[in-house]
Design brief:
binds alpha-D-ribofuranose, alpha/beta, Inosine-uridine Nucleoside N-ribohydrolase, Chain A, 309 residues, 10 strands, two-stranded antiparallel ribbon, binds calcium ion
Length: 309
């Protein structure tokens, strides 16, 4: 029996963040959850993270972090996730507030005290960049960073995906840190959709958690179905950053040089992925996750929900 991967999930719940927390709690050694402003303001993402942990009966710590990007003006994704960041379901009140407002300190101290921790950021990368800047030893202490973000196309613009667009300067720090980096971008996350059949499978599980998550995913799917020609449900982005670590056999991955565009009028926040087929390619800094076997991957999500129901 291999031991579970140790990880800290840094998130901005967020409907797909909620699913990522559930599957991380089920399949990883989840050491804690840190929150960042992104889909919604920090107070909302922190409240939502605690609610999700309450719903799965977890006492794991929640530490809130950055309430705004390093340089960019704050933007949220309320048009997708609603004003609360987790609209669409009847949610319980959170059992308590955050354990601290020092996400960066929690990340640094935990990774200094525990060997082999993966950082799994699934929102803007502000907390991770601040931690890397505050602790120069962090990059060599962690097992790596597995993030949701980027891609060969965008969702905020034709070029830029929300997490990296929201704080490109932070993304640039992370992509230059020099350690193991895995990137689950829109190319792979759009393959993992909460289709009506999958929603029905979740709803068929008895209990509050399945019902709440099915309501959340149904709400989250509306904007995707309304906007996209070829989608029958929301792209459940964030779990890919967890599953590519816990279930690598379900994914295809290849190494590339990836740079973050900071100055382009139309491309700021874009991931420039070098896919040129050279005999001596540019030295890679990132393992890009390209494809997922979506049915078994979604089955893992459903089993995790059933486990905590
Ligand atoms: O672009 C998708 C990402 O932006 C996901 O992490 C989603 O939760 C939002 O934060
Ligand atoms: Ca997110």
């Amino acid at each position: 029996m291999t031991s579970k991967i140790k990880m800290i999930v840094d998130c901005d719940p967020g409907h797909d963040d909620a699913m990522a927390i559930v599957v991380a709690a089920r399949h990883a050694d989840l050491l804690g959850v840190t929150t960042v402003a992104g889909n919604a303001p920090l107070s909302s993402t922190t409240r939502n993270a605690r609610i999700v942990l309450d719903l799965i009966g977890s006492e794991l710590p929640v530490h809130s972090g950055a309430n705004r990007p390093l340089v960019a003006p704050p933007h949220d994704a309320s048009h997708v996730h609603g004003k609360s960041g987790l609209d669409g379901a009847d949610l319980p009140e959170p059992s308590r507030g955050p354990d601290s407002e020092n996400a960066v300190e929690f990340i640094i101290e935990t990774c200094r005290a525990t060997e082999g921790v993966w950082l799994v950021p699934i929102g803007p990368l502000t907390n991770i960049a601040l931690a890397l800047r505050a602790a120069p030893d962090l990059g060599s202490r962690i097992a790596g960073i597995s993030l949701m973000g980027g891609g060969t196309f965008g969702n905020v613009s034709a070029a830029a995906e929300f997490n990296l667009w929201a704080d490109p300067e932070a993304a640039d720090i992370v992509f230059r840190y020099g350690g193991k980096l895995m990137m689950s971008g829109l190319d792979v996350t759009h393959q993992l959709q909460s289709t009506p059949e999958r929603l029905a499978a979740i709803r068929a599980i008895p209990g509050q958690l399945p019902n709440v998550l099915a309501d959340l995913l149904a709400f989250y799917s509306k904007s995707y179905i309304n906007h996209h020609l070829n989608m029958t449900g929301a792209a459940v982005h964030d779990p890919c950053a967890v599953l590519s670590l816990t279930h690598p056999q379900l994914f295809t991955i290849s190494p590339h040089r990836v740079d973050i565009e900071l100055r382009g009028e139309h491309t700021r926040g874009m991931t420039m992925i070098d896919r040129r087929q050279y005999k001596t390619p540019t030295a890679p800094n990132c393992e890009v996750v390209w494809n997922v076997d979506a049915s078994p991957a979604f089955d893992v999500l459903i089993e995790a929900i059933s486990h905590f129901a």
